[in-house]
Amino acid sequence: MKNSSFAFFAFLFYLALTLALTWPLVTGLTHDVPGGFGDPLFASWAISWDATHLGRGWWSANIFAPHPLSLAYSEHFLPQGLQALPIYALTKNPILCYNLLFLSTFALSGLGMFLLGRELTGSAAAGLVAGLAFAFAPYRMTSIPHLQVLSSAWMPFVLFGLRRHFATGRLRPLAGAAAAWLVQNLSCGYYLLFFTPVVVLYIVWELTRARLWRDTRTLLRVGAAVAIVLAATAPFLLPYLELRQLGFSARSLTETTRFSADVYGYFSADPNLWLWGPIAHAWPKSEGLLFPGLTIVALALVGLAQTDVARAFQARVGGPTRAALHLGVQLAGLALLAVILALLLGFSIRLPGIKITSLSRVLMVCGIAGAIVLAVSRDARDRARGWLSSPAGIFAAITLFAIVMSFGPEIHARGRLVSDTNLYGAFYRFVPGFDGVRVPARYGMIVTLGLAALAALGVAAIDRRRQARVSAIAGALILLEALAIPIPINQNDTGYTQAGLAPLPASVAIGPAAPEVYRFAAQLPASAILLELPLGEPAFDVRYMFYSTLHWKRLVNGYSGGAPAEYETLTESLKDRATRPDRAWQAMTHSAATHAIVHESSYANDGGPTLSAWLRARGAREIAAFGTDHVFLIPRP
Q: Which residues contact 605 (CB under 8 A, 6 or more apart)?
């Protein structure tokens, strides 16, 4: 079978598994939402905005009116919007578009890693297992509510294209790698920052491994590809920089640390996983369930231990003295590794006359000792050079880098400080953009990428007569570890920050079933700006945004990664309406809103009718009513 045909059937294989492992989503593609109604509805709105408003004014979306650049308060989802554009044009169904994109992230991730794994090993079986490892890792199932986190499929395509270019010298794979890198940059702001150092590291490794640093032609081609990607990405960064100038502050170190991975997060799994959910809960916390899967780790360790380089150096050891020295070095290395792991897990080392508690000091001693060994031993230098020039070496480095970065500015084990310094802190201080994201734990996806590539090497190291059988067993175990069906669907956020609110409906309505008040809103003048009440409660605001796809009028409301200070002030003023009614009315009339929509059924008891009566008493004119939804014209001050 030709490589292209095999890849096509591999994609269909991953797609079929995606439909099975995300059951029952396929039965409700047009109306159900995987996970909860928070981020998925936000992404559905953003994708719809992208599909309908490209061009001038695109960055100033219809939320948080009258503030500019509101699309840049979070992810812009442009590649996803372009992917969904034909479906949206035909159906005008944001949820269908979202669900198709959601499903595609799994299947495309599998295909990309299949191609990379096969390219690294020459084995289709290794590629298939690697694709399963990346597409259906436990961390991906944990990330079901976050489309931007799931949109990591382009990473292996980047590395595959670079690998093919350096192997063949052809331009087409390099162009494909550049295109995939650009799409990855724009698909998720986190991966723009987190994955770019990985790409640079991989390019440096390929140039070093192939001794191409003096090859002017290769350097010019690769340099041009990198420059094109950076130049094409830069315009999408400018609005975020402009927001800083408008007063949006950086993420604090305290907030960044709160959303960093705990060491024990790698031993904590999503509770919905059939196999590991009831077992692996060493330190469960938001965005911190990073258990990578036992099968994937086992295959990765096989890949590390069974590389040609490792076997070659084992063969070179000759004579009892040299063999004993070699064994001693290995045991010392394992002992140091055990000490580092123990300190990472929060333990201290106590031996007769020795107490080791500082991770940073141990790492410093290890670094100095390693430098001395490399300086005095040619054999050690050759071994290190050979290891680093192997695929196992670079993907081990990528995995280790991602794990370390996921810990954030500090390293914690079960909430206890292990080290007050970490590599991420340097990126936060010195690399632009890192102080604008708050979840270092999302490096977990790049950990999965590295482990999946190492897993391909592990499968390839197995004797070919047993490779098919072992691959089938490993693939089945990976799928068993990923099993979380039925996945959560249509989950409502009931942890309101405001009192007196009623539970939201268990679903969102699509098409003709959507609330009639929004069809009325579509008939209002283009200059109309809506303020929907309740305001300032995320679970409600994100629904207003979703339903705004029916009318696209500007909203004072909004839900995103940030908000203007004025929105917080307005929210607090309206919350105090009962005790400070004059302040609440002044805040409303001085907002940009021309119309208010009161959703009376969203309030508990008689809160909704009381609010409508208050608006009438203050001079707001009711112009329409649809059941419990009342539309008011707000008088200007």
A: 500
